[in-house]
Amino acid sequence: MNVKTALILLVLALATIFALVCVLLTRGRVPSACQHQPPEQEDTDAGRSLVFADLTPEEMVRVVRYLQGNLGVQLVDASRAKPSDNCIASVDVQVPAKAEVLRFLDGGGARPPREALAVLYFGSEPDPNVTEYVVGPLPTPAYHRDVTVQKYGGKVPYHRRPVTGKEYVDINTLIQWELRKAPRFLAECCESDGTDLAILTTAPRGFKSGDRATWFVLFHNVAGTGYYVSPVGLEVLVEHRDLHVSGWQLHQVFYNGQYFGSMEALEAAFMASSLEVIRIPKPRADAVLGSMRPRRPPVSLGPLQYEPQGPRYSVRDNYVTFQGWSIAFGMNPNSGPRLFDIRYRGERIVYELSLQEALALYGSNCPGGMSTRYLDGSFGIGRFAYELVRGLDCPYTATYVDRHYLAESDTPKTNQNSLCIFEHDAALPLRRHFSDSQSLYYGGLRRSTLVIRAISTLINYDYIWDFMFHASGAIEVRVHATGYISSSFFYGQGTDYGNRVGPHTLGTMHLHHIHYKVDLDVDGQLNSLETQDMAYELVKDPWSMQNTIERPYLRRERLEREDEAAFPLNTPMPRYISFASPKPNKWGHPRSYRIQITSFAGEHLPVSSPMERSISWGRYQLAVTRRKEEEPTSTSVYNQNDPWTPTVAFADFIDNETITNQDLVAWISVGFLHVPHAEDIPNTVTAGNSVGFLLRPYNYFSEDPSVDSPDSVYFSGEQDAGACGVNPLACLPSAAACTPHLPSFHYGGFLNI
């Protein structure tokens, strides 16, 4: 080898080493951190949304102190109050009347006084009752007024009050005392002395107004799992109407198809061998039916949604803005999420969009299951919206917001991070077209939406409440159901009421019906209801008169009265139903928003049922009524425990008033029939178990407003689609080549149970 060859090889070796070092350095380089850019400031007057804001903990405390000092009666903290005591049941914001709010928001009027609505239980009065007071002005209360008669037409009888946590504790104590009277039976039946059994309430509580007798279902309770799918076959009926706990009694006992007058009678039947006992050993934690513990260790991480340049939405207090949208949001402790003053491009589309009620109605051949009609608002849809799990319940980088409430205690509580807001890329075009004819081009827009979400855990079920805002001007509302099914003990003809999902577990059929209030203000308060649908007409072909053609045509109709605008559940209704403004768009059509419902609801309770009026909102998939300040909600928390004489009966709202050029409200019911099956164990999945509705612009604009979206993509065959200046997608390799800042995972949701 000569010197020249050696030098060439040396240079090549050095070049190779240099290249390898560069590759290694490049691979090992940590991407730079994402640089957040502030979102566009679309509304500098966010403070006006505070007219709708939920109460702060400080305001709740001041209301409690005011009531304690100004009612002239002794008030016991509701967390320890007996039925015979007086207590403050709840305190929430009193949203001002719509006319006052609009004068403030639109007319330059004064800000309405801030007030609270306080619900009190007066159990020690000569005539025990529930009373509601408006207290104000906040933050320094100086007055209160009784609004009970104004709202409900009379005093609210005391037996209608929701059951408090303290009442449940006292009932549990009574049941445990009674279970001791059948020790041999419990040992044989359940390998238990009763103290380790879980007790689940049913509702309503009797057969007529004034009743307060509840069936309680008993389950094996294994720590860390859902007891709801492990019934032991034992159910007890407790009479707890008396204001004194000492007057409560266990009235009946049910086991494996037989009824007994007491636990002593059940024990006697067992000892006499006249009772068939199904032995159900206590499940092991590693083999219990409802365990959600992972069965496989984690492997590679899944996809992560993040914003390379920070959120493109803005949240301030109770106000969120996003690409032309602005929304005031809140949470009613009873009925759940509520949104106000929803605007797009500065124009109000919806004044109020709020959840009203969630009904779960069961069937079974066991007494607890067959009598259950849960009205979840009486338990607290908003109150039981707990902390969300970052990265699973919502995207890891979502904005999380605390919610505060005061219920069954004189001290406010906080559900931290219980509402989330995020931009969601659906990985689906909102619109697109690939042109292969005449000219070559591609145009599209990704479907990116703003989502406001909360999740309520109501005993066994978890409801995911979604409110989504699209670049097309559409509002989408969806509810997803998950959590545990409720079950009965499997015996006899149980499969007439569901499917067997475990050795002794019947997944009981039930229906979910959800009700919403939508106060649309389409280009102003005065709207009319218009419908459109198709029909066929048989006509002669103009160019060939000897032939005929079936030609589809559009049938348009304006509905004049409320009775016409009440569409019964599960019956055909016009495919296009719109709130129409008297003002036209550019093309001469009324500016409108269309209501589009997606639901597969079960059958409504027969109208002949004595409790049907309490859920009469469920008669209709859609009902449109004149908006009235005295008809703020379609139901009441008092309907659960007295459905036979409902405090609020929605059917009375529909009284055939004119609905032409009026301030209108759409009341929307969605739901589904759920027949539990093997795949509902351990949990019901959200896939296929979601329903909802859309509010879609219909001739409201002159064109699709999403054409103004900064996310639009367009390039032609003559352009370089890989150039960042031509196609924003080509900018992603550099613009998104950064590491998102992920906050440390923390969860405090168990602290406030």
Automatic annotation (TrEMBL):
Keywords: Copper, Metal-binding, Oxidoreductase, TPQ. Signal peptide: none annotated. GO terms for cellular component: plasma membrane. Residues 305-706 form the Copper amine oxidase catalytic domain. Topaquinone (TPQ) is generated by copper-dependent autoxidation of a specific tyrosyl residue. The active site is at D376 (proton acceptor), Y461 (schiff-base intermediate with substrate). GO terms for biological process: amine metabolic process. The keyword DNA damage does not apply. GO terms for molecular function: copper ion binding; primary methylamine oxidase activity; quinone binding. Its cofactor is Cu cation. PROSITE patterns: COPPER_AMINE_OXID_1 (PS01164). Its EC number is 1.4.3.-. The modification 2',4',5'-topaquinone is found at Y461. Residues 161-257 form the Copper amine oxidase N3-terminal domain. Contains 1 topaquinone per subunit. It comes from the Eukaryota. Residues 74-143 form the Copper amine oxidase N2-terminal domain. The keyword Metal-binding applies. Belongs to the copper/topaquinone oxidase family. This is Amine oxidase.
